[in-house]
Each structure stands twice: as structure tokens, then as C-alpha cells.
């Protein structure tokens, strides 16, 4: 019996030693790599500005009324976006049976560098001033002194045009508007 115990003990000790030596090789993990691909579609968001209340003008002597609206646009599209403006009808500014005539450019369909309306007339027009001057459409660029549709300046309150019932591109952005992060977990 002593011999059996001794043999069992020796066998167990040999098996334990073999296990200690061989186990790391048997249980070793396998290296593997995984490529994760995620398609992100181009999206665009645009804010809706409040209605515009023009500054007051005198009913008999007239004057110039001004107002502005701001749209915030964000896109992750690497091609950017175009923003066009158009009127739903001509004349563009109408309320009931009352209206203002559409602005009359000195040269049709070419923005005027300065707002120019006779004191006896009432007209409605607009200009475009993006937050980044590089985004302004060529028609609203100016040479910095007298001419629109040429040059590389975007002088504030310059390059006035009438609203049309067809699209007029005002902003032509060719890149994304914000940094976009895509978390992955």
C-alpha cells in the first residue's frame, strides 16, 4: 500500500509539473484584429429665424426701413452647401392690397453697390452677408469701392438686388461647417 501511495504521489507530482510547464502554451490567447467600418451620411440642419420687423418709416415723408434675418446652417457634407433665396410672388413684399415694388437695379439682375431708391418711390430688396466671407456667392462680392459681382470683398451693407421668383444663390460653401465627432464604443 505504501508503494501505491508513493506511486500515486509521484504520478500526481509529475502530472502537476507537466501542467505547470504546458498550461501557458495550451491556454495562450490568439491575437486577432478587427476592422470596424461605419458609413456616415451627409446631413444638413438649418435654423428658422424669427419674422422680420422692419424699422419704422414716416408715412408722408418716407425714409429707409431696415431689418435682417439670420439662418444658421450646419453640415458634415465635405462638399458644403448652397443657399438660395427667392420670393413666392412678385412683388415680394405684399400685405393684403398693399405692397412695395421690387428693388430696381441700375443694370437688371446685377446688384447695386449702394442702395439707391428715389425719395418718391418705395422698393424692397436684399443683400447677403455670410458669417464667412469666403462663402458669399460671386454675385454679392464687390471690388471694395463701387462694383458688385466682381472682386473678392464682402463690404457690409453693399450689393443690393431685388427678390426674384427663381433661385438666386447667396451662399456657396464648399466645406463642412463644424467639426463632427463620431464616438464609438
Termini gap: 62 Å
Which bin fits the share of residues in helices? 10-25%
- The class by helix and strand makeup works out as alpha+beta
Note poorly predicted spans.
Answer: 179-185
Number of strands: 8
Q: Number of helical segments?
A: 1
Please report which band the strand proportion falls in: under 5%, 5-15%, 15-25%, 25-35%, 35-45% or over 45%: 15-25%
Order of helices and strands: HEEEEEEEE
Give a quick account of the main beta sheet: strands, pairing sense, barrel closure. 4 strands, mixed
Strand arrangement across the biggest beta sheet: 4-5-6-7
Shape field: rod-shaped
Q: What's the mean pLDDT score?
A: 85
Whole-angstrom Rg: 36 Å
Layout of helices and strands, plus pairs?
Elements: H1 2-26, E1 44-46, E2 73-75, E3 81-85, E4 93-95, E5 98-102, E6 123-126, E7 161-162, E8 168-173
Parallel strand pairs: 5-6
Antiparallel strand pairs: 1-2, 3-8, 4-5, 6-7
What does this molecule look like?
This protein has 185 residues and is α+β, with helices and mostly antiparallel strands. The chain has one helix and eight strands, in the order H-E-E-E-E-E-E-E-E. The strands form three sheets. Strands 4-5-6-7 form a four-stranded mixed beta sheet, with no helix packed on it. A hairpin with a 2-residue loop joins strand 4 and strand 5. It is rod-shaped, with a radius of gyration of 36 Å.
Question: What would you say about this model in short?
Answer:
It is built from one helix and eight strands. It starts with a helix and ends in a 12-residue tail after the last strand.
Highlighted features:
14% helix, two-stranded antiparallel sheet, 185 residues, rod-shaped, alpha+beta, four-stranded mixed sheet
